[in-house]
């Protein structure tokens, strides 16, 4: 299933429930919900995916809401984070359905196949230079991993491992493997 079919849907959309069911070998787990006035997260740590819903129609959720307290009709999926296995302290398991096929607006090729070991070089070869990028500065023990965003295609990638942080991260970053892929509506 293409992620772009999920964007814009409310949490109760059948297509979202179907998607979560395809990721789970058993009964799909209930999401770990984190609510804030400007965003609601539906986290599925065991499935390696997190959904970010934005309020609309003037809806202002409060912090700490439970699932049954949410107004589904006033929420829409804005972004989805897909997690890869990198690092020993990862709070999300790896996404179980690798490789991932993403259909991206305005990208050539229109469908990207992202494997567990896809590197920064491969993303740049597919999508060209990113419209935004950051991270990688500071000492390797405390820096932020490098990340790249292709706004017009609706994809952001955070890279992991030692190649993705520290003073020379951008020189080594081409060899860094993705840690999180975020899919969102193109800007």
In whole angstroms, the N-to-C terminal distance is: 22 Å
Strand coverage percent = 25-35%
Taking the sheet with the most strands, its summary is: 8 strands, antiparallel
Give the total of beta strands: 10
Count of helix runs: 3
Determine Rg (CA atoms, Å).
17 Å
> How many individual domains?
2
Query: Which geometry do the CA atoms define?
Result: globular
Helix and strand element order: HEEEEEEHEEEHE
Category from helices, strands and their pairing: mainly beta
In which range does the helix fraction lie?
A: 10-25%
Q: What topology, given as strand order, has the largest sheet?
A: 1-2-3-4-10-9-8-7
Mean pLDDT: 89
Low-confidence stretches: none
